[in-house]
Design a protein that fits this description.
15-stranded antiparallel β-sheet; 47% strand; mainly beta; 15 strands
Amino acid sequence: MSRRTCLASIAAALLLVPLWSASAWGATPRNEGLPEGGEPFDLDPASFTVEIDNPYWPMEPGTRWTYREIDAEGTELEVVVTATSETKEIANGVTARVVRDTVSEDGAVVEDTFDWYAQDADGNIWYLGEDTAEFEKGEVTSRGGSFEAGVDGALAGVAVPANPVDDLRYRQEYYAGEAEDHGEVIGVDEQAEVPAGHYEHVLMTKDTIPIEPKVLELKFYAPEVGPVLAIGVSGGGDREELLKVTKVGRRAARAAGTVPLGKRYP
């Protein structure tokens, strides 16, 4: 699943992370029935919907999130994420919402992705794979990271849990050796300030990648908005912050889900 405040507040948050994590005090991590690692997990396609209304990331078609990302080298990138009107039947039988994630540098697309999400009957948002490509001067340089749940052993994971509680752990995606992201809830009553505004009662997660043990990222999800901030704490100093949330029309919502990767869309 393709990348991805007030400085004083964030600095304080980073210092307090070890204190907030109950596991640091010997508490038992919990998964509340959610999968971890590469363990099998039965999904009933009939229990899923593409009408995603989890309050920590409601994906109404036509919603567009625009972010500014500063990578580890200090390069500024624009990230545009659009919940499209399109759906895709995944190999494991679940029908998913197509979400377009486009990264540009100086107006040129450098990475483009179709992400696939669906929500189960409990309200968990599941991540079912991605079709992604990296570009240089308009040419594809890599398709690494692409996977689809149900193909070649790839498994779905949880992007946002329905009932996040401290120390809740879950896999976010699993494709052995390629995509093995893991999430853990750090807090559910945090704050974040970004160009789009100041948010309270924010869900904060710690994301790690077992196959890249030095990578650690903190993510912040604001109620009724979605992801507002991501900070690379280790393994890269990326920072991605929400600039604005807008609505696009039907034509743009469809184009975002159908125009080929790497091509411009409304």
